[in-house]
Amino acid sequence: MAADRAAAAKWESMADSPHDRSDQDLAETLAATLPQQGFWEWPAVVGVSGGADSVALLVALVTLARRGGASGRILVAHAHHGLRPEADDDLRFVAALAAELGVALVTERLEIGGAMGNGGEGLEARARRLRYGWLGRVAHERGARHLLVAHTADDQAETILHRALRGTGVAGLAGMKSARRLVDGVALLRPLLGVRRARLRRFLVDRGLAWREDASNADPRFSRAFLRHEVLPRLEAGAWPAATTALVRLGHQAGLVSKALDSAAGYLLDRHARRLADGAVSLDAAGLAGLDPHLLAAVLVALWRQEGWPERDMTAAHYARLVALFAAAKRQEEATLCLPGGVRGSVTRSGSIELRPGISPGKNAR
User: Fold this and answer.
1) Could you report the per-residue pLDDT of 264-300, keeping only the tens digit for each?
2) What structural domains and CATH numbers belong to the chain?
């Protein structure tokens, strides 16, 4: 307790120092993006790697929490993947920072295994999946309602450009969400998604605070690092000085379009779908066949989500075949279609489309 009080006194005195205006600005930015009601009523978990962005997030959050006497509700979570020789030093750095700030720390060593996981999963993707799985468990076990991570506007621009180059759809162009469900009762928040990376580094430099650098973030063999260090800087140094801002704006607009499309699809699904006694769903082909194929596909995506049918293996080609089923119904042709997860689609004699889910393994088995 004495150490906590000493840490609090140190950070309160630093908050009053003349060089700390950037701290106050960042804390105010953070306050504006956090939930306005009830945020400090529950513990908050902060993912801290030791990099500049996560260190800045943690320090700004502690500064904000101390104003309301809620710093005791902050829990620092650090995942140790052991992928780099510097990982042990990263852990020691984060532990020292948490102690200096007077906040609790939880760590875990997450073994990644081989270079490729199930289904050809890459090393980075596997590490990310394991990390968020662990963070979700930590938040749930500690009674937290929010997990905060330090993704920035630069991260958002890189994500949008990366997805565009891989061939994403409109929803993918929206980039990362500022908030989403992580596990039951826990939301993942990205409160710095509108803040540039350079601002966070200036904030740390102004305070004389250190951070850890991950050498892999500068390795152009990794696609994100290549975009970060080779592509975006050249764009901004050349004819597109506002490239990052433009990409973030594109993501925002794509998000709005995606929401509008989802809303329209949900409305049409409510009007033109009905459930049958055997659990199948009947769709009014006459009312839907005249829609733009992209909107009709969105209606079908909404149906899959509503019913909880397997989505992972449903590709754009599968949805295109479903759209073609409506054209067959319009021509009064009988047709059937087998889809991933055992879902079966068919044109009935009355001209409607029936989608019947498969039987899960073991269900009704004798």
Assistant:
1) 999 999 999 999 999 999 999 999 999 999 999 999 9
2) 2-249 (3.40.50.620), 276-356 (3.30.465)
